[in-house]
Amino acid sequence: MIGEKIKAIRMEKGITAKDLAEKAEVTPGYISQIERNLISPSLSVLMRIAEGLEIPLVSLFSQEEQEEVTVITKDKRTKIQFADINMEYQFVTPYSRTKNTCTQMEVLCFHLGPKSWGSTIVQYHEEAGECTLVLKGTLEYHIGDKIYTLHAGDSIYVPPKTYHQLYNPGEEEVEAVTAISPALY
In what order do the strands lie in the sheet with 129-136? Predict the structure, then answer.
């Protein structure tokens, strides 16, 4: 469970619940509830917690350390759905809490329902570039005052430090693959 991992990492790094709460801009009681798996935090809170712990967000979802050639079958992908993001993420690449080759790049499959935004929060990656390939449907990348429309087979590269949002303007679900480097989650 995520709460147990947060607590284990926090203890491993010698960070108090109070210090983590300050870094994540929540109360110590909220951290305690998360660590005891009594509540499920939003993606934005999890991102602040991961930043406070100085770890990639994805390490909170990993089950084991990966340092070798790894095959991940379609049915064994880690799937994540956040309350404040309208997409289901499926991790295609392995990942770990340690800084090894597995955390240099991240590949995700995602699905986005018809007529919906990927997130109510504008996405921004300080140091990571992002490349998305649309497999099915139509996907819009809203970047500044421009809209980039992608259809099945089209791709887009978004450099670091670029604010962006995703939108599915169509009547069918979007299916896409995104590569992010270095890994964010």
Answer: 78-81, 87-91, 106-112, 174-181, 129-136, 155-158
- pLDDT (tens digit per residue) in 6-46: 998 898 889 999 999 999 999 999 999 999 988 888 888 99
Spatial separation of the C-alpha atoms in residues 131 and 110, rounded to whole Å: 13
At residue 170, φ and ψ (nearest 5 deg) are -90, 180
Euclidean distance between CA atoms 157 and 140, whole angstroms: 13
- Count the neighbouring beta carbons within 10 Å of the beta carbon of residue 146: 7
Give residue 25's identity as a one-letter amino acid code.
E
Distance of CA 18 to the CA centre of its chain: 25
**What is the per-residue burial (b if ≥16 Cβ within 10 Å, else e) of 161-173?**
eeebbbbbebeee
What percent helix, strand, coil does the chain show, rounded to 5?
A: 25, 30, 45
**Model-level pTM?**
0.61
Give the tokens for residue 153: 């087979």
Burial class (CB in 10 A: 0-12, 13-18, 19+), 32: middle
Q: Identify the burial level of 132 via C-beta atoms within 10 angstroms of its C-beta, where 0-12 means exposed, 13-18 middle and 19 or more buried.
A: buried
**pLDDT digits over 136-184, tens only?**
999 999 998 999 999 999 999 999 999 999 999 999 999 999 998 887 6
